[in-house]
Amino acid sequence: MAGTLTWLGHAAFRIDTPGGKRVYVDPFLNGNPKCPESEKQPERVDLIAITHGHAAHAGDTCVFGDMQLIGRIYSPDVAVLPIGGYYTMDPKEAAVALELLGTKRCVPCHYGTFPPLIGTPQELKQLAPGVDVAEIQPGDSVEL
Question: Is the pLDDT of residue 77 over 80?
């Protein structure tokens, strides 16, 4: 049985584990114009993971060389990467990050929330052939 990853807009996610735990990663829920209304008041939270000190967290990174070490040591199955291109990676940089990580599956985030975040999953798909790029909307889930 696999868990699910639900995008809540911007760089906020909810993970529902196979064991029934509910984990929120960078839960920018209130004030996030893309967060589904039904997700703004969680019914239950078992764990909150914060990746950095404001409301976007791993969502605010750029490609860096040590991603190759992450790929080599941990062999991630899926990468959650920002593609907005303003304060973060754009699709071209995310394609390089996927190459360094060696990951063939990506859930893009940190795009479309605010006007300057213009990168799109379609651009990433063109730049990263062979990678399964999820084209989900806030509130949609993918199986892990």
Answer: yes
Rounded to two decimals, the pTM is: 0.85
Q: Which two tokens stand for residue 134?
A: 């999820």
Residue range 61-134 in CATH 3.90.226.10: no
Q: What six digits make up the tokens of 132?
A: 């399964």
Tokens 């889930």 belong to residue: 141
Cα 16 to chain centroid distance, Å, stands at 15
Distance CA 49, CA 63 (A): 21
With cut-offs at 50, 70 and 90, classify the pLDDT of residue 95. very high
Output the 3-class SS for 46-76.
CEEECCCCCCCHHHCCCCCCCHHHHHHHHCC
Mind listing the pLDDT tens digit for each residue in 30-44?
999 999 999 999 999
| CA atoms in the 13 A half-sphere facing the CB of 144 | 16
The pLDDT value recorded for residue 60 is 72
Note the residue count of the chain: 144
Tokens of 48: 């909150």
pLDDT at 51: 83
Q: In what order do the strands lie in the sheet with 47-49?
A: 47-49, 22-25, 13-16, 4-7, 141-143
